[in-house]
Amino acid sequence: MHRTFKLLTALTLLVLVGPGLWAEPSADLVAAAKKEGKVVVYSITSRIANAATAFEKKYGIKVEAYNLKDGELIEKVSREVGGNIAGADFVISQDSGRVYGQLISTGYLVNYVPDSMKSVIPAKYQNPLVFQYINKVFIFNSEKTAKPVIKNVWELTEPKWKGLVQFKDPKLEGVNQNFLTMLTSPEWSAKLDKAYQDLYGKKLALTTKNAGYEWIKRFFQNGLILGNSDTTISENVGIKGQPATVMGLFVYSKTRYDEKKNLALTPMTEVEPFSGFLYPAFLSMTKNAKNKNAAKLFIEYLLTAEGFAPWSKDVGAYSSNPSVPIDKDDHPMSFWAPKLVDEDPAYLFQNRADVEEFVNTISSN
Amino acid sequence: MPQIQLNNITKRFGKFVAVDKLNLVIGDGDFVTLLGPSGCGKTTTLRMIAGLETPTEGEIYIDGRLVFSSEKGIDIAPDKRDVGFLFQNYALWPHMTVYQNIAFGLENLKWPKDKIRARVSELLAMLKIVPFEKRYPSELSGGQQQRVAIARTLATGPKVLLLDEPLSNLDAKLRTEMRAELKRLHMETDSTFVYVTHDQLEAMTLSTAICLMKEGLLQQYEAPMKVYAGPSNAFVADFVGSPTINFVETSGNNVNLDEIKAEAPGMRLLFTPVSGSLTLRRDHPVAIGVRPENIRLGEPEGLSGRIYSTLPSGMETIVKIQVGDTQLTSVVFGSVDYPLDSPITVSFAGDACLLFDRETGEKLASGSVRIIP
Amino acid sequence: MRTVNRLKAFIKKPHNIILVGLAVILAYLTLFPLFSLIRDTFIVHPSEIMSVKGAAVNDYTLFHWRKVFLDGERSAKLFYLPLWNTVQVSLYSSVIAIVLGGAVAWLVTRSNMRFKKFVSVVFIFPYIMPSWTLAMAWLNFFRNRLVGGAPGLFTALTGIATPNWFAYGMFPTSIVLGLHYSPFAYILIGGILRNMDANLEEAAMILKASRAKILARINLPIVMPAILSTFLLVFSSSMSAFAVPAFLGTPVRFQVLTTQLYRTLNGLNPGYGYIMAVVMIVIGTAILAANQWFVGKRKSFTTITGKSSNSSIVNLRKFRTPVSVVLLALVVAVAILPLATFAIESFIMAPGDYSAKNFTAQFWIGEGAEDIGGGEPGVLRNKYLYLALWNSLKLSVIVSLFAGTVGGLAGYAIVRGRGTKLASFVNNLAFFPYLLPSMAFGAIYLSMFAKPTLIIPSLYGSFALLVLVGTVKYLPFASRSGINAMLQLSGEIEEAGVILGIPWHKRMARIIFPIQKASFLSGYLLPFISCMRELALFVLLITPANRVITTLLFQYNEKGWNQWANAINLLIVAIVLIFNTVINKITGASIDKGIGT
B20 and B103: one domain? Predict the structure, then answer.
């Protein structure tokens, strides 16, 4: 009741003062962008296609939108910009460690914050400019029970969950690898250590460097099923009529398929010490952008409620612009942030390779 | 004893009749040649005897045993017919050495190793191929391959040997040599040979009997010299003999009781049968067949003709003469040379001239030919 | 002076000019990349600054070699185990391909089996289809509950749950690759059996050898060279197969070199990947060398052609019908059924529900719906699909034109210059790309042409790069067709033209090409088909704007958008089959002529 009310007021506020919250793009920019007539974007989120359609309709500027995997996007951009080959004008990327190390520190990506957004978007999201946050959370098949099936992540290392948990192969997506890497950080390994004691009432006996590594090892070795895509995992977890209750750690927004695909997916938000993880997607121009103005216009557009509509109408997407509403069934970032593991680019840059090697060693047969 | 008997053997490939109701008895120790132009069914017949081809109808006996009968549904497999088979292209196994090729059949008979060794050595010596024992077929010449193939076929000592144009892939000189070898082999092995060839010279020189076939039909089955002297029809007469027999195409009429008068442009002939009298229709189309050796040149009272071409080969000379519309071939002993287009007289000797019905090709009579002045 | 004259005489012959030209170009396009690849194993790449601590990009390092070969358990997991898996899978699939393809070849050419025509046409399908179509079909049938979700059709029908080893990993990967490449064996072994002089068998039969003994002592040894070439082809193809192990291996974390290669090249440690590529090339070359040594030792089984007649057909007697039916069922199961499942799957809304109300044409002609696959429109309304399809067709046509022409010329020059060192050098160079695993080959070209090299500008992201890599990669098919065509043509035919003073280009266009049209055209057909269904070669080189249909398909597959993937898969198979059939009917060119030696 309380939440609905809060949302309602926010929405009303938006409708009333919406246009006043941030300025419209300058007429000069629109004109220049229209003159270019075209813009190319690489994106890690497939819903860019819908935004592109809307943008095309609004401004009459043609959009070529390509959906790439995170590692692929980084490789392509570093080659294209590095070789000064015409490619994307701007990109929506993810995987902080690599984006910082390979694209930002090399100057391949150029940060651009529209003037109209400088006062709207919190400063911490401005360099590099964050487009949105995405979360992956523990989600279970709720056909038989609506009650959360675990309270502590260490339960996933117990025999009762053997072979029943799915996770996208971290080799295929950098952010999953980042999540595992973050677990080995002093902060999260301490939290995991504590969670173990809370659950079992005894000290964790280490066979690896720290509690983070220990959890990863036991999690993987408990018959963890590595999938190819979060979409497939969401289907495999959510499909009805399965003998055992299964679960997975995947993109929260996949629960939007529930109705159409007849799935039973319910997220868990109260798992100790984390219910999943969170990662930013960055919105940046490329150094050699050909259609600079159209790119700037599209970037500005994506940061508005209108431009973010393809994402905000479902759960699991959180614009860096705090005045953009979220889905009515979702929780705001302030709800999620303390429950999820966030990325720390500096730590990732230092430790990602080690953890990747560790994961590779324990995960292949 | 290894006698081969074919009763009413017919082989059809779809609509095409390869062999038509063939009856044949091949006696023990015979060297029978199946002779004929390509496509006459001779190879098919040989393969049916071996069991490599299944006849459509008929019966085959080998050595008194029924090995095939379409009616009784008997079809003994080739390996149980106790025959040897020599292929036209030798069919040597390219991945086996000469020794292995020859020993293979003996291995199948489960001979002990040392006996195989002895037998192969014997054959290598017999066929004069000892030095090639360890070679692969691709490293041998055609003649050597031929000998290996023979050795392989002989190794198991088959009583019936079937040979499919074994000499056709050899050059002329080797062929003559191998002919002699084959004839000796026939004597030495004391087995029955059935030999397919399209080379009438081979058939004449080697065999005890020739079985001449044409389009699946048996034409004549007799000893070579009988076939040569008394061909049953024009086809046989034409096929056997080198140079080929001369045909003078005329129309014949009975005259003087049993004589036949035959006229053609530039010649008027009188044929006197020795084989008995015959009656012809008026102006019956006939052909007179005369072997080249029976054509005499330069004798008085002959037909007048012109030298068309002279082909001396040392021992003998083939002379072609144009008489009216007809071209005649004569063989003269020794080397003679006539100037081109010089006039010459032609006459016919002996009483081995033949008269054929031009409509049916049948031989009507044999006899002598005189020239009507 | 004499040298000058000799040089003049050398240049006068067109084939020498071609040979020299090809030697230079191919050395640049195949050997030079090899050196570039080896160099890549010693340097620090941009993404490796996280792993190689304190190093700068392009520094020389032994880090990769140490990690791949000498890092204890980590090396085992990273490299040795995948290598061992690769070797096993390649071996098993070679055996399966040879046994199955060989058996079918024997039945079709040497027995009185029924349905010969149908079997011989359809048996080739798995090779024409993209290799992972069978892998997808396998999953559709035998998927178990390991990955959760709905079990496969087999379990749904029989109630028997498939064990993991059966559904995923080594076993299905070997089977699927074996099936995919068995047409190789069928074509190569069948070619020899068909031309084998039936007398060779008959001679043995008359010498009282049993059927089994004839098979073992006569047929097998004679087809041995064909078996060995099949082994060479299937082993190296399986070794470089990527999509199949990627689909079937992931659920049980079964890794082979290519999956590791893809991961490392796309991930943080491309250096590892380049080393693995080198290892794969070494293995491929070793097999080729062994094969040549063996064939060379046994020399020419060449003149084993002869007339064969009906008599060589083995009567299967009472086994005729059972054998025919089993084979027919197998061929249908392998070649036709997968297509049916793709068709069905592409029309289903909720996975695993095959009731009528769940069928929809959404994924073919629907507009994008927000709640399914993020608003992606159906394949027939998808502009990116048409773009990718157009790219694929354009690429395949251009590649086949280049590869076919160069291969034809190479075949001509190699045969004419037979016996010279130059000719055999060019021959080996033209075959070399076959041994380079596709993905490794793509990786080499990526690293080589991402920056300007020698006279060539940076080609990354250009269509030309795809054309180049495709042309070189498929040159072996085309040059083999060319060599075959030329070997069957007596030199006198061209000499007759030389004497009449007909210039070289006219001799080629008016005499040589027309006579061996079918063989030469086969040299165009194979690159076309291979290119249409190629994934691994292009997957690293594609930029979004020049995406081809297979990479689009792979992307849908990876995202788990099965309906689109199945629809596209069906489209690819249909296009390739139609092209193959039409070209075959019109020109007589066929893929067997390209593979056959």
Answer: yes
Rounded CA-CA distance A61/C303 in Å is 69
| Gap between the terminal Cα atoms of chain A | 50
Report the alpha-carbon angle B280-B283-B284, nearest 5.
Answer: 50
CB C93 within 8 A of CB C303: no
Chains B and A touch (3+ CB pairs under 8 A): no
Question: What average pLDDT does the structure give for chain A?
Answer: 87
Among B173, B208, B239, residue at a domain's last position: B239
How far C214 CA sits from the closest chain B CA (Å)?
11
Residues B158, B24 share a domain: yes
Are B134 and B20 in the same domain?
yes
pTM, entire model: 0.79
- pLDDT for residue A13: 44
User: Do A232 and A353 share a structural domain?
Assistant: yes
Residues of C within 8 A of A327 (CB-CB) are none
The whole domain housing A72 covers: 2-133+279-336
Distance CA C153, CA A88 (A): 43
CB contact under 8 A, B108 and C311: no
Closest CA of chain C from A27, distance in Å? 30
Q: Which two structure tokens, joined as six digits, stand for B238?
A: 């034409």
Instruction: Answer whether C268 sits within 8 Å of A86, measured CB to CB.
Output: no
| Percent of chain B whose pLDDT exceeds 70 | 99
- Helix extents (H) in C488-561: 491-499, 504-506, 513-515, 517-532, 536-539, 549-559
Residues of chain B found within 8 Å of residue C199, distances taken between Cβ atoms: 87-89, 91
Answer yes or no: is the ipTM higher than 0.90.
Answer: no
Range of the domain at B99: 4-239
Chain C residues near residue B136 by CB distance under 8 angstroms: 299
**Does residue C162 surpass a pLDDT of 80?**
yes
C438-482 pLDDT per residue, tens? 888 887 887 777 767 667 777 777 888 999 999 999 998 888 888
The count of structural domains within chain B is 2
Q: What is the topology classification, in CATH, of domain C380-597?
A: MetI-like fold (1.10.3720)
Q: Assess whether A27 and A42 both reside in one domain.
A: yes
Question: If we measure between CA atoms, which residue out of B15, B103, B20, B91 comes closest to residue B52?
Answer: B91
Contact assessment for residue A237 and residue A139, using Cβ atoms and an 8 Å cutoff = yes
Per-residue CA distances from C492 to C482, C506, C507, C597 (Å): 18, 16, 12, 22
Mind listing the pLDDT tens digit for each residue in A237-270?
988 888 889 999 999 988 877 777 788 899 999 9
Task: State whether A268 and A197 are in the same domain.
Answer: yes
Distance CA C476, CA C482 (A): 10
Residue of C217, C218, C299 lying closest to B138 (CB–CB) = C299
Read off the pLDDT band of C298 (50, 70, 90): low
Domain end, chosen from B206, B239, B272, is at B239
Do residues A199 and A72 both lie within one domain? no
| DSSP-assigned states of every residue in A135-191 | EEEEEEE-SS--S-S-SBGGGGGSGGGTT-EEEE-TTT-HHHHHHHHHHTSHHHHHH
Distance CA B344, CA C341 (A): 91
Could you count the other beta carbons within 10 Å of the beta carbon of residue C345?
A: 21
Burial class of residue A28 in the structure, from the number of CB atoms within 10 Å of its CB (0-12 exposed, 13-18 middle, 19+ buried): exposed
Q: What pLDDT does C547 receive? A: 86
B22 plus B115 within the same structural domain: yes
Q: Which residues pair with C111 in a beta bridge?
A: C314
Question: CA Rg, chain A, in Å?
Answer: 21
- Could you tell me which chain A residue has the CA closest to the CA of C57? A102
**Helix, strand, or coil (residue C311):** helix
Q: Give residues with Cβ within 8 angstroms of B173, minimum separation 6.
A: none
* A127 and A225 share one domain: no
Q: Quick one: how far is CA C62 from the chain centroid? A: 33
Whether B47 sits inside 8 A of C311 (CB atoms) is yes
**How far is it, in rounded angstroms, from Cα C527 to Cα C529?**
6
Task: Tell me the pairing of strands B343-348 and B353-357.
Answer: unpaired
